[in-house]
Amino acid sequence: MAFVAKRCGVKFDPPSVVLVYEDGKTKKMRQRIMPVRNFSKFSDCSQAAERLKNNVRHSAYLEGVSLRQLERLHGVLRDRMRGRTLKQSLASLRLDPDQDLNKLSDEELARKKAQMDELFEHNRKRKDDPDFVYDLEVEFPEGTGHETCSWDEDESDDGF
Amino acid sequence: MAGHTGGIFALDQEKYDADEQVKIICLGDSAVGKSKLMERFLMDGYRPQQLSTYALTLYKYTTTIDGKTVLVDFWDTAGQERFQSMHPSYYHKAHACILVFDVQRKITYKNLTNWYKELREYRPEIPCIVVANKIDADLKVTQRTFSFAKKHGLPLYYVSAADGTNVVKLFKDAIKLAMSYKLNSSDFMDEVMRELENFELEQREESSDKEDDVIKEEKAKVA
Fold first, then answer.
1. pTM, to two decimals
2. What ranges does the record give for the region Disordered, renumbered to this chain (chain B) (predicted)?
């Protein structure tokens, strides 16, 4: 590969995606700033990410950067346009096991689901996989040696 | 939102009274994997019906039990709070419930209490299976006992929608439970509903009898 992507980030003014990469020939680290055009607080992040990834001038540099990451970076840029702080938008990108997702809007929920989907896709067994079994049954015997779940420790709020 | 509650009944729920029809509801927090479980069970054979107004996806499934064809409607519900007003119609006439939590997120386990409490307000007797989903993320969770299920005397299934562990078994068992509940139901609310329906019918018959009498009397007068 001619360019090896190392790190990716954003710049708010003007809204741009910043890539730190290694030039395959010279072995030198370089930085590339790619302005995000025609992008507003109403734009669709996955479309915009795709547009950037397929951009004739940038696509060679972005080969090693996943569409999903570009989508997230656009999300951060858009959050800023909507008046959210960087801290808030980074928090929305993280999965907090104690956060109640029932309270989120459709869009915020979709963002969380997209993150969970990464693990899902990674562990997914597909119909065409050679070891796929439709009715896969595994017994997990209950009995001795079982740990009690720490989730059950604070029982006080569970009284019915 | 609140005014919509009644509207969902336009989704003919009367059909669930027919012997060969069962309704199974999937409950649980947002993003615990309810739809993923449905899709894994039905694979390519699913034709979901999105009813976004009701925050609901309907999956139809046909199977054979003891030589009889059974039509199953799975109601995949939304966990988000703003759809709270839809809940009564989710529970209405349901024959079994699949109650899901995510083994990676404690809050979804804690919230089982709320889901279960609400379920029992509407359907005190229907069979309910507790599902610990996403065990592929960390198989060690299957060594743990989750006391919620035990406490309420409910079966607990360890499943993974991603690798398929126990998903088909879960749904097949849920269908069996729904069918046996339907055939042997002694659910108090069901009884009450039946009584009420009969009562209404009797009343209607009575009133029509009276009309007949009046008509007869009039005829008699004419004669």
1. 0.72
2. 200-223
Q: Is B142 close to A140, i.e. CB distance below 8 A?
A: yes
CATH number of B2-185: 3.40.50.300
> CB–CB of A100 and B111 under 8 A?
yes
The answer to whether residue A12 is domain-embedded is yes
ipTM entry: 0.74
Kindly identify which residue of chain B lies nearest to residue A122, measuring between CA atoms: B162
Whether A149 is covered by a domain: the verdict is: no
Query: Whole-angstrom Cα distance, residue B88 to residue B72?
Result: 20
Mean pLDDT by 10 residues, chain B (223 residues): 46 76 96 95 82 85 89 92 90 96 95 97 96 94 90 96 97 95 72 65 56 49 47
Pairing of strands B21-28, B68-77: parallel
Give the nearest chain B residue to A120 (CA atoms).
B162
Distance of residue A10 Cα from the nearest chain B Cα, in angstroms: 29
Crossing angle of helices B34-42/B167-184, nearest 10°? 90
| Domain boundaries, given as residue ranges, for chain B | 2-185, 187-223
Chain B CA closest to residue A131 = B163
- Domain count across chain A: 1
Q: What is the pLDDT of residue B7?
A: 46
* Nearest CA distance, A130 vs chain B (angstrom): 13
